[in-house]
Write a structure and sequence with these properties.
Structural class: mainly beta
Keywords: Dioxygenase, Iron, Metal-binding, Oxidoreductase
Number of strands: 34
InterPro entries: Carotenoid_Oase
Strand content: 35-45%
Protein name: Dioxygenase
Radius of gyration: 21 Å
EC number: 1.13.11.-
Largest sheet: 6 strands, antiparallel
Strand order of the largest sheet: 1-2-6-5-4-34
Cofactor: Fe(2+)
Length: 505
């Protein structure tokens, strides 16, 4: 491995820190690395694996003002690139306005998710709640050859070089970015059209908006999605002709909001509602559908079938699990992050555009979340999804599940005890001929070896285990969302003789 330490972060976290989401598998990094020709410790890098895997991570560098929530951590991008049977690694902090201000101050300046806004040391801020730091530590997507990082509660989008992981500045959409409301966690890129769809939300009417950015990076569509009040939507989906948004019955308690307290409650007597709108439709074109009460954090895909729009995602049986008095104080405090406590399972909704009726069904009894598909099937009928299972009681991924939506069959792979993965991206092999003809790529934190690895599976044979395992420069923090971008979609990738030259090194 050709290794260089290129950055060292200022961190004021205490050496005796006992917070489980700032220690152990979630121990943040303070080093930024450039590593070429990664060491292969098992198997062999497939010659037809070509492109980059990017993962975003919450990586705090300062103690919170009072109560730390893992979503508060600053964003760090990890890149593992594959080309010609070799691999490289980069990691960089996302240089957001909030991160730079706190680095200069040497402390946290904004209130986090588990804190009241009034304790913030600055009156400005981001997020639908306001007075929060835009950590840009939630998702990462690639649009027009540039990676974009996002904040879970609406913020700026930061442009990231998908090779070096360096921050290139804020996305502006040629001067039309909605900086007043920001963009929510999960914009969706349609590989077929080059369009990116997004939504945002606010405590101000109409409470939600939806937009489309075209393949030239222009904001070409932006309309109101009126809601009954402030909501907390997190994800969306799209088909060839429609976008699907939602109004879930887990949102800030209206009475608490009057006291400027942001307490999320599941209003279980209310239905879940889904908005189906033509991709460039107007407010008047929205069709609303009701379904069983739940909260959905993530959707895997949507597609059209006859008169129906079909949506798949993770239904929460219990979005607000009660404190049952078991487990450590940390397990009880963060029970809302444990998939097994919320009972998240893959689910299907069918919205009939002719009758206005909804049909829904559970697809599996397996508890899982953070699902990915072959991105080239986004918006059209897919067969396979690849999800993460969790360590009971914890926000940690301890295995993978491949679900076959056609037959209901599942394939699983469990990591060893003390080994935790990330959201797993599907990378079609060069010249792939079928939906699962490719590889699954993820990053793991191995507490037993005090090391981290990039791991590659054959997507058609998940249960066989990894086809290769590559050592990273150090053990990295556990993380969540990721994406894959094929080399052919990246500028300079195929016009240079080497990956190092392609990334400008």
């Amino acid at each position: 491995m050709d290794l260089e330490l290129v950055g060292k972060l200022l961190s004021t976290l205490p050496e005796d820190d006992d917070h489980p989401y700032r220690t152990g598998p979630w121990r943040p990094q303070t080093n930024e690395w450039v590593a070429d020709d990664l060491e292969v410790v098992e198997g062999q890098i497939p010659a037809d694996l070509d492109g980059v895997y990017l993962r975003n991570t919450e990586n705090p560098v300062h103690p919170s003002l009072k109560n730390y929530h893992p979503f508060d951590g600053d964003g760090m991008i990890h890149v593992v690139g594959f080309r010609d049977g070799k691999a490289f690694y980069r990691n960089r902090m996302i240089r957001t306005d909030g991160y730079l201000a706190e680095q200069e101050a040497g402390q946290s300046l904004w209130a986090g998710l588990a804190e009241r806004p009034q304790i913030a040391l600055r009156e400005d801020g981001w997020g639908a709640r306001r007075q929060m730091k835009d950590a840009s530590s939630t998702d990462v997507v690639v649009h027009r050859g540039v990676a974009l990082s996002t904040f879970y509660q609406c913020g700026d989008m930061y442009r990231i070089d998908p090779f070096s992981a360096q921050t290139l500045g804020k996305e502006s959409w040629n001067g039309h970015f909605p900086f007043d409301w920001g963009v929510s966690a999960h914009p969706k890129v349609d590989d077929r059209t080059g369009e990116m769809m997004f939504f945002n939300y606010s405590k101000e009417a109409p409470y939600m908006k939806y937009g489309v950015v075209d393949d030239k990076n222009d904001l070409v569509h932006y309309v109101d999605i009126p809601l009954p009040g402030p909501r907390l939507p997190h994800d969306m989906a799209f088909t060839e002709n429609y976008a699907i948004l939602n109004d879930m019955p887990l949102f800030w308690d209206p009475e608490a909001l009057k006291q400027n307290a942001h307490v999320a409650r599941w209003h279980r007597d209310m239905p879940a509602r889904f908005a189906v709108i033509p991709r460039r439709g107007q407010t008047k074109d929205i069709m609303w559908f009701e379904a069983e009460s739940t909260y959905v954090l993530h959707f895997t895909n949507a597609y059209e079938e006859g008169d129906e729009v079909v949506l798949e995602g993770y239904f929460q049986t219990d979005p607000e699990p009660a404190d049952n008095g078991t487990g450590t104080k940390w397990e009880r405090a963060f029970r809302f992050l444990a998939q097994d406590r919320m009972e998240t399972r893959l689910h299907r909704w069918r919205f009939n555009l002719k009758t206005g009726l909804t049909k829904e069904e559970r697809l599996t009894d397996t508890v899982s979340e953070f699902g990915m598909i072959n991105g080239s099937f986004g918006g059209v009928k897919h067969r396979y999804s690849y999800s993460a299972t969790n360590k009971p009681g914890w926000f940690l991924f301890n295995g993978l599940v491949k679900h076959d939506s056609l037959t209901g069959a599942e394939e699983t792979f469990a990591f060893e005890d003390g080994v935790y993965g990330s959201e797993t991206a599907m990378a079609p092999r060069v010249g792939s001929t079928s939906e699962d003809d490719g590889y699954l790529v993820t990053l793991i934190s191995d507490m037993n070896a005090d090391a981290s690895y990039a791991v590659v599976f054959d997507a058609a044979r998940l249960s066989d285990g990894p086809v290769c395992k590559l050592k990273l420069p150090e053990r990295i923090s556990s993380g969540t969302h990721s994406t894959w971008c094929a080399g052919e979609e990246l500028r300079r990738w195929q016009t240079e003789d080497s990956a190092a030259t392609a990334v400008g090194l």
